[in-house]
Structures are given as structure tokens and as C-alpha cells.
Design goal:
With about 600 residues, this protein is an alpha+beta fold. It contains 10 helices and 30 strands. Strands 4-5-8-7-6-9 form a 6-stranded antiparallel β-barrel. A 4-stranded mixed beta sheet has the order 19-26-27-28, with no helix packed on it. It has a 4-stranded mixed beta sheet with strand order 20-23-24-25, with no helix packed on it. A hairpin with a 7-residue loop joins β24 and β25. The protein is flat.
Amino acid sequence: MTVKDYSTTAASNTSINGVNIAEGMSPSGVNNAIRQELKDVRDVWNDKEWFILGDGDGAAVFTRASSTSITVPTDITSTHHVGRRVKVYGSNTGTIYGKIATSSYSAPNTTLAFTFDSGSISGSDSTVDVYVGSTYVSPAIPVIHDTSLGTSAVLPPSQGAVKTYVDTQVTAQDLDFEGDSGSSNVDLDSQSFDIAGGSGITTTASGQTLTVAGDDATTSAKGVASFDTNNFSVSSGAVSIKTGGVENAELANSSVNYGGVSLSLGGSDTTPAFNLADATGYPGSAITGTIGNSQIATGVDAAKIADGTVSNTEFQYINSLSSNAQTQLSGKLTASNNLSDIGTASTARTNLGLGTMATQASSNVTITGGAVGGLGSPSSGSDAATKTYVDDLVTGLKSRIICRGATTANIDLTADLQNGDTLDGITLATNDRVLVKNQTTTTANGVYKVVASGTASRDPNFDTVAELSGQLVIIQEGSSNADTMWLCTTDNSGSIGAVTITFSQVFPSSGGTVTSCGLTQSGTEFTISGSPVTSSGNITLNVNRISATKIGGGSTVSDTEYGYLANVSSDIQTQLDAKSTAGFSVAMAIAL
């Protein structure tokens, strides 16, 4: 507990830094309390700039609300006002400085938001100490506030006098400047200093930047110019004609010397054309001397000859000619025994025996963008076959279809024939062939290909009724369908998807080996046990009890009546006949 924690109500101050100062305290307690009080006062005055004011009456807890704000459970807006400098300390935050950005009270709390010079309140500090700057005018960081902050801002002493003095000093100053000729000044209080551009110079002001730029020179205005490096050299500001001189194209109406050949140019035409054949030049000009091999470069570029459309490579073709080119070309066109007229394509084809074929290669014929048509039916082994001939030949031929697996019940064709799905104990893979034979919608039956994902599609080799009708399908794998055969019994008529597609299982009628045959039980007369019949299997039949109605055709004897036979010791009819003799009758009469 220090000065910041003392209450403005005397009776509320009952201890000083843990020393009890209640009524009846011991003399030593008085001494200790005075010593603690002196210490607290000394600590406060050691820093005359920063104070923890608390709530103005006693201690206050500054609770972190965010990285830039705190709350206090009392109204302290009068002392902690907007703009006042603050020092915030926390064990994790350290010491950071700033000022109060907002200060508002809404019962029961005052919320203070800060603008820090740097740093923020650590999230690891639940509470911090908040010091406010003193109104002393010469601290390390002066606490001086602009009046724009409102009436709550703390104003330095004699602000009015200071402001008046500053205004007076600024108003009294001006900026003096001189040019190459003349001088002037700018009143800093009421005038602006204008830096104007001149011929070839442009000035631009933007923000706090003044840009001075040189304009490009033109034929009518001064400015910044550049020089053609083909003709001029520039070094340390000096411009000179290059050692090689100025190109002839840059000269007009002057005497030019080309390696000893002088050309005297005159007149207004600065780009004349010379006729060296008659050496007359253009009107008003004269050619002096002769032009020999020594005055001509090693080679003249083809682009400089005639209209320039013939290339150097094309000119070189002339080098190997042995005689007049036209004469040789005409000789090459002489009609021969094979080509009577190379200019007429139809005649050349006739002479070569090509008929109407347009293209003939050295050893084969290639047709691009078309088809060979007009062929007749083949008659020999080397003849080309037409599609119609092949289709007619294979019509009616059937072959076995081998499928990896087959369905045992209706499936969803949009989801059950995808890569990784399980069918009849088989894990399917993309492009597996599957016989679909149990669809509720029988028009959907057929041979399908497994897809990577999505809806399965029919095998393109068996996607018509004609391709399926009469086909025998062999199943390779499956818990129920392995090694079975199925015949498509649909007639060869109608279109796929519109007619019923049915498959019936086919069993061997003779020969071969029955690989699996099972029995099913109906009723209770027999019990079936053992494995189904295979190449080496057995089936066991156990007779239980046969109902009387199952004995004989249409029998009316009941089970009870059959029970009367239980104690018969011999043939019933023989016993009945014996009982019917006369002696038996008399005995029966006596007995009665």
C-alpha cells in the first residue's frame, strides 16, 4: 500500500504498508508508520512526472480489456481524460507509453482506450498499473495537448502568451531569394513560393515533393536532346562527329567520294538514282572516273539487285547451270511412252493405268480425307472386300461371350458396376465384362462393362438385340455363378432397350462332368443332408414319416386308419375268410 492507495477519508486509512495505525497502536507502531509514510512520499516525489491516481479516493484495479484498453470499477473520467499521457506497466507487458484515446464511464466501469507509442498490453497480464503524466511542463516527454482535443485537455501554463508569441514570430518571418538577376522574398504567413518552369523545363508539385523535369527538345522548342550514336560521339558534355564520318544518307547536294570514285551531286533531289550504263546520272549531275572491282565490295546482297525479291540462295541456283535454263526445262517436258502429257493429269493417269485414282505412291495408295468407293464383290483371295460383303458374311454367326461375373438380383446400373464394387463375391475392376440378367426392368438386361465411376454402359460389341440374340455367355467367377452357362433366348427383332432381354441357364445333357447339382427340400417326409453332387460328392436322403394322403393316387385312407394295421399278424383277407366258416358261426352264436 502506497500513497496511491490512501483514502481521502481519514478514518478509512487503518494501515500504512502493513503497519497497523488503528486507535491504541503501540509507540513503536507510530514510529514505524511515520517511517513508512515518509518512504511512500519519497517514492512518489522521486518521479514528479508519473502518478497512479487510483480512483481519486483510494486504490483502484486496472483490469485488461484488450491489448489497447482497460476497465476500472469507478468513474475516473475527470482525471483520466482524452489526450493525457500514460505509462502502463505489467509483469509480462513491461513498461509502455502512450496517451488516452477514449475515456467513457458506463456504470459500474470506466473504459480507457490507449494509443501506444509502441507495444501493447500482454494477454498474460490480467491487471496492470496505469500511471498518468503530471501537468509539469518540462518532463522527459512533455505533457502538452492541442486545444482541438477539447476542454478536457490539460493545457500548459500561459498557453495564450506562448501561442501569441509563436504566431508573431512566424508572421514576422519571410523567405529571401535571388536569381541570376534580381531578388525577392516570400511572406511565409500569407504567400507561397512558386518555382516556375521555363523553356524546356517543367515543374510539378505533389504532396511534399517538387519535381523539376527537362522537356524533350523539338525543332521548334529547346529541351533535352539526344544524339544519333551512328554519327556523333558525346563525352563529358562535348559533342563531335564520329571518326567514321557522317553517313552518305545524311548528306545533301555535296561531293561524295567512294574509294576513289567521285560523285558530284547537285540539284534539289537528295536521293537520285544513277544510270551507270550511259553514265548520264540524273539531270545536273556528272560521274567522274570509272568503277572497278576494287571499288565494289566482295559481294552485292541479292536484296540490292533488281526489285530485291530474289534471295541470295536463289541466285546461287544459277551457279550449276550448264546451259540456257529455259532450253533445258523445255527439253524435260518432251512426251515419253509413259507420260504423253504431264500437264494433263487425266491423260497421265490413263497412260499409267491408274484409272480415276487421284494419288499414287511408290508402293502403296494413301487416301486422306476420303474413302475408296465403287468396289465390286471380291472374287479372288487378293481382292479388296466391301463392308456390305463382310456384314453379309458374318450375319447369323454367333460366338460365346466370356464374362468375369454375373448378377444374382436386380442392381442399380448407375452405382453398382463401378471399379471396386462387389458382385457375387467378386471385387470388380474397370473394363470387367459382366452379365446383367436379373433386372426388374428386363429391357435393361445384357452384357455391360465395369466403369471407373458413374453409370455402367453396355459392351459396345453386344449393344444391339441382333448381337445378343442366341449368344452363349460363359461366367468365369462368382460365389453363385462361377463356371455357369447362360443362353440369350430373346428373338432377333426389335431394338435394344425396347424389347425384353432374357437369359436361361444351360446344363450339359450328356457327356462331360456335372460339376455341381443340388436338391431343395419341400415338406417334412425327407431330410436332405450332405454336400451337393459334384464329380465326387454325395447327397443323403432320410425318410421321416409319409402322410397317408401321399400314399397311392388320390388315397382317402387316413393316418388313423393306417394305424389299424399295426397289430395284424398275417394277411388280413386270409384271416377274414377263415373267420367266416360254419364252425366259427356256431361258436359265435353260442357265445352270443
